[in-house]
Write a structure and sequence with these properties.
Blueprint: H1 7-24, H2 26-29, H3 60-73, H4 77-88, H5 100-112, H6 123-153, H7 157-173, H8 176-185, H9 204-207, H10 223-235, H11 239-250, H12 253-256, H13 259-268, H14 296-303, H15 310-319, H16 335-345, H17 355-367, H18 371-383, H19 391-403, H20 407-419, H21 429-441, H22 445-460
């Protein structure tokens, strides 16, 4: 019988033996998912929905990847595992979809997914009815960890940062549950994947070695980020996030003292990407973004897209070289032009431009450096048109346009500093005047008028 003092060592040895078996089964685990999932012959994998079956239909690979991405973005544990295998499995190179960074991203997301380690049922009922399902999930996680570790060991520091950024982006699109996962990923009280230490595929003894596994160092443990992401979850009205935040504050005096700095950082925090980078492996199937949540704020913002003059979308599409010149109306776009843009985004080629795709056009042009679109996107975030109101993102895009010398953006920045905006930009009258002068010198008329009024007031001021 294993003594309590030997429990940690026994657990480590058990995981080590299981991992060794799984490493021998890597070719099986890297193959495309079948009706019973990859590795089913060994009894290790969980059953997969029939929608994941490979078909011979035209464009089947693209359709399957998009279907998997929709479910993976929504937090489906098995879809995340299967999507990672598509990009990093044994047949990925032959199918021309080999993408190590994308594979590592989805393995990391699957390993951090609570559905992968949360117990389904407890006690005797679990052993009687769901033992195999619980065991197969553990095997899935161990196999995912082995694959992730191999991928990360071959990556540069820049590629690892790209994996981190993509993981943070996807989790941020999930709202409060995603923020809570990000908090756990940075918390020393949890395993390296935000999981309970006793359920982690990385044994505790492996974390104490001279060279810990690469997967254990992907996210840096620190209290500031734990507070930041718990605070973001709580701010969305999430009760679990609020409880986690209060428990974290009560755990030590030092952690409670982080509140002011972490809250200030949270008010200025923006995700690493405006939308998921639509890069494409050799197959030409872009990494589509399936992040739009069907929340009330998102739906309301999209419903207001018509308030935005279409010429702004037209300028964005011309900048992206989808059209030769800016379209003034949506009706002036051809079906071919719309389908070309939809292909750039990795979206179905319907030939009809949706409200979301109008927003994506401006976002895409802004990300690629068009000052006009950066200014438009900033206003959209400030007003809640097309995108939910977000002053941190509005300030970010105003500042990006300002750096390119955009006069209107300089004037907007003066307003941020003049009023102080939701904790994003502290009230700073001196900075406001500087921005107003810069905007005036750049030729922005409203600012020039305000500057003349300011100078008139100064000239009338009594001399001392």
């Amino acid at each position: 019988m294993v003594q309590p003092s030997d429990r940690s060592l026994h657990e480590g040895l058990r995981k080590g033996m299981t991992l060794a078996v799984l490493l021998a089964l890597v070719p099986l685990l890297g193959c495309e998912p079948g009706p019973k999932g990859p590795g089913a012959a060994a009894g290790l994998a969980c059953p997969r929905p029939q929608t994941f079956l490979t078909t011979q239909a035209f464009n089947a690979q693209e359709q399957e990847i998009r279907a998997l991405r929709r479910q993976a973005f929504a937090g489906d544990f098995f879809a995340q595992i299967d999507l990672a295998r598509r990009y990093g499995g044994a047949e990925a190179e032959a199918r021309k979809i080999h993408d190590p960074v994308e594979a590592a991203t989805w393995y990391q997301l699957a390993l951090s997914n609570p559905d992968g380690f949360a117990p389904i049922v407890t006690g005797a009922q679990r052993q009687r009815r769901n033992g195999r399902l619980q065991d197969c999930r553990e095997a899935e996680r161990l196999g995912a960890y082995a694959a992730l570790e191999r991928l990360l060991e071959r990556m540069s520091s820049e590629e690892r940062q790209d994996v981190r950024d993509r993981v943070i982006y996807v989790l941020s699109t999930q709202g409060a549950p995603g923020y809570r996962t990000l908090a756990r990923l940075h918390d020393v009280g949890f395993g390296p994947f935000g999981d309970p230490p006793e359920s982690s595929p990385i044994a505790p003894r492996d974390l104490k070695g001279h060279r810990p596994p690469a997967a254990a160092t992907l996210f840096t443990r620190n209290d500031v980020d734990v507070y930041l992401f718990n605070y973001l979850a709580a701010q969305s009205g999430d009760v679990a996030g609020f409880v986690m935040l209060k428990d974290f504050e009560r755990s030590s005096t030092g952690r409670a003292s982080l509140g002011a700095d972490a809250q200030a950082k949270a008010k200025r925090w923006t995700p690493p990407f405006e939308f998921y980078p639509p890069q494409a492996p050799e197959s030409g199937v872009p990494l589509s973004d399936e992040s739009l949540r069907a929340g009330e704020a998102e739906a309301l913002a999209l419903a207001r897209v018509d308030e935005l003059p279409f010429v702004h979308v037209g300028h964005a599409l011309a900048f992206l070289r989808v059209t030769e010149k800016p379209a003034v109306t949506k009706a002036s776009l051809t079906t071919t032009e719309i389908q070309a843009f939809q292909a750039m985004l990795g979206r179905p080629a319907t030939g009809r431009l949706s409200s979301l795709e109008e927003v994506r056009a401006i976002q895409y042009a802004a990300v690629n450096g068009q000052a006009r679109s950066q200014l438009t996107l900033a206003v959209m975030y400030a007003e809640g048109v097309g995108v939910p109101r977000d002053y941190a993102r509005a300030f970010y895009w105003f500042s990006q346009a300002d750096r390119q010398g955009n006069a209107e953006a300089k004037y907007a920045m003066s307003t941020f500093f003049s009023l102080g905006m939701e904790g994003v930009a502290d009230q700073d009258k001196a900075s406001a005047v500087v921005y107003q002068i810069d905007a005036a010198l750049a030729g922005f008329k409203p600012s020039a008028q305000r500057l003349r009024e300011l100078l008139a007031q100064v000239s009338r001021a009594p001399r001392t």
